[in-house]
Specification:
Pfam families: Bac_luciferase. This is Flavin-dependent oxidoreductase, luciferase family (Includes alkanesulfonate monooxygenase SsuD and methylene tetrahydromethanopterin reductase). InterPro entries: Bact_Lucif_Oxidored, Luciferase-like_dom, Luciferase-like_sf. The chain is α/β, with parallel strands linked by helices. The protein has 10 helices and 12 strands. The chain has one domain: Alpha-Beta Barrel (TIM Barrel), CATH 3.20.20. The N and C termini lie close together (6 Å).
Length: 340
């Protein structure tokens, strides 16, 4: 059995070929797609966060809106770039959104990916300490967030406050119990997956990772997942770890499906560089008739290792078409693979 959700990058463009022309369109359509996905029986609605881009960037108002409009579906991010985040303010926003959603947030965070501008986090007021990298800074922000989400008091109260305080040190409010255990780390390497396990964060692994050994993408990703689970067990956490993988999967059941994605039927892994020093492997797109798709996906080792599958959706094709993409997987593919 798998938890099956969608992952949207929330692009918008004023191109005549786009059904998502503005930031308003992207946000409102994201809410509508989450509602539609819940009605179809999907398990999660996740959103990528990018700054300085025509994509979703401020997740918590969106997550809160979806939480108020839905009842069951998990709501999350994949991922929030911690280089840009004030962890105290983030804990407040996340706590409020989680309470509105009734404890359904699953927050994916990470050190982030290459951005639209050079060192964009500097414009947000952050920079690494001397001798540290931007990745170190992101992990430090993440560690503070995890500490604050535990809900323990740490701030000295004013002896003459405007409003009466509870006894003892104060914590960030609102606090949402259990949210600390629903934080995920987006890991691009085996080493960061192990670090995430040691911190007690679940693992998000996307459609790309650092090329570590030259094996096919899904094989490398499966190795990463096994390293994560081993480190989790060694760390002694008493709760069960979760792992998500992202995939572009399109069951071709209509002429429109073939028009949009039929050309991806022969897709293969690709190698590229996400920066000057990091060689990455990018996973293939799966696009085929349902019976062919079932055979192809049955051989994906990483999907077999994961408990959660996030379907990357082409959000600029509109809510109705993306709901169709999700429904195709849920009805034509998932049952044949034992995911439902």
């Amino acid at each position: 059995m798998k938890n099956i959700g969608f992952l949207s990058f929330g692009h918008w463009s004023d191109s005549p070929h786009s059904q998502t022309r503005s930031a308003s369109d992207a946000l409102l359509q994201a809410v509508d797609l989450a509602v539609a996905a819940e009605e179809l029986g999907a398990d999660g609605a996740y959103f990528r966060v990018h700054h300085f881009a025509r994509q979703l960037a401020s997740p918590f108002p969106l997550l809160a809106a979806i939480g108020a409009k839905t009842e069951r579906i998990e709501i999350g991010t994949g991922v929030i770039d911690m280089r840009y985040e004030n962890p105290m303010y983030m804990a407040e926003d996340a706590g409020a959104a989680d309470l509105i959603a009734g404890g359904r947030l699953q927050l994916g965070i990470s050190r982030g990916s290459p951005e639209q501008v050079i060192d964009g986090w500097r414009y947000f007021g952050y920079q690494p300490s001397e001798g540290e990298t931007e990745a170190d800074m992101a992990r430090k922000h993440a560690e503070v967030l995890l500490m604050v989400l535990q809900g323990k008091g740490f701030a000295e109260p004013n002896p003459r406050p405007m409003f009466a305080n509870p006894p003892g040190l104060l914590r960030v409010e609102p606090h949402s119990p259990g949210l600390r255990d629903r934080i995920w780390w987006g890991a691009a390497s085996n080493g960061t997956a192990v670090w995430a396990a040691q911190q007690g964060m679940h693992l998000m692994s996307s459609t790309l990772k650092n090329d570590e050994g030259g094996a096919p993408f899904h094989v490398q990703q499966a190795e990463q997942i096994r390293a994560f689970r081993k480190a989790w067990a060694e760390a002694g956490w008493q709760r069960e770890p979760r792992v998500s993988v992202s995939r572009s999967i399109f069951a071709l059941t209509s002429e429109l499906d073939h028009q949009y994605f039929g050309g991806d039927a022969g897709s293969a892994d690709q190698i590229g560089y996400i920066d000057a020093d990091t060689r990455a492997i990018f996973g293939r797109t799966y696009a085929a008739e349902p019976d062919v798709l079932v055979d192809q996906l049955a051989g994906d080792e990483a999907i077999a290792e994961a408990d959660t599958l996030l379907l990357t959706v082409p959000n600029q094709l509109g809510v109705d078409y993306n709901a169709h993409v999700i429904e195709n997987v849920l009805t034509h593919v998932a049952p044949a693979l034992g995911w439902r």
